[in-house]
């Protein structure tokens, strides 16, 4: 018996590296046979590892293993493992369905069950189901469990039910770094950066040290506020405390500096990152394009491809934007064709918008018009405004389809600038009755064209909106 236990313990220790090396279903089926032969299918941690590895290859195979490894009904740790696998995968709603099935068996849930189901609710923004889980948590006596409370807080914050999230947060007897980070992240996701920073101040008073997740949320808050000085202060904290600059934190710093106007500092952070993922590259490419450095954007895109990274839809949007600003029409056409023909990505509204803008900037209004007409989807208001503005700028060089102006006003009937633009274009074509009608409609609806504005940071404070007309 002693020798058998020693053998099982040895096999259990070597299981994790064995699972990591298993990349096919057949490999994992062999391990499944070993689990049954050695009775390790009754060990909770072993089964959690096995189902997690299996679900990373095929969630359906993980479910089949769950259905056949144990007599009915399986033990609670097996249920938790498969619910967790569904919650982490692309079908989180299946985790909730599994929980409903678990309830029918009469097996008592434990404190590991609820966090996985709540994570599934958060991923799918199923707030009603999340509220029902909250009721069950209280009914079953898990309301004081810190793991469950943090999962509840995260669920409400992810579903943007910030009031309920704050109530859960305030009712916590003890708060760890996960609790504080979830509350700060919730406020940021709800576009309430000031409240996020206030919570961080309370976090410092409570003497809880922020982790990488907290710092990413704080940098996002600075980005929303456009506060470069505050972002620099957080960067200084990261450097002073030797916080590891992982991919998420490094990318958040790049975004903050780029959005707050310091493109050189953004690039310095980017180059200092030891590990970069596709998002890191795309953010930097977009930053160069947004800051009027399209050559750098294209050069970085080429570097990214040479590193073996496959560009995604967002990467191509930044690239096409750069081509537009440089007037590289032929290159823009080539890259646009690459999207679907080489990378098998369906072009999005943003890609078509970049192409229309590129043709307009190059003075190819007629080509922009034909491209717009052949779009497989209805153009949005941004593309329509851009094209109609270009038509007006070029003095009505082509016949403008009046349906475009009607569509723009139909999409955004309460934006005064749309009526002004349509009236100005009608004036170019000497359609004075249409001009009068558009002006009358504006007057009847009480609409006005809102002047453009900017935010300027002065002495650590964002000063009010400054009209371009005032400047």
TrEMBL record:
Signal sequence residues: none
GO molecular function, one term: RNA binding
Repeat listed as a keyword: yes
Family matches, as PROSITE patterns: PPR
PPR repeats, residue ranges: 75-109, 176-210, 277-311
Record GO biological process: RNA modification
Keywords attached to this entry: Repeat
PANTHER family xrefs: PENTACOTRIPEPTIDE-REPEAT REGION OF PRORP DOMAIN-CONTAINING PROTEIN, PENTATRICOPEPTIDE REPEAT-CONTAINING PROTEIN
Protein name: Pentatricopeptide repeat-containing protein
Protein's organism: Cinnamomum micranthum f. kanehirae
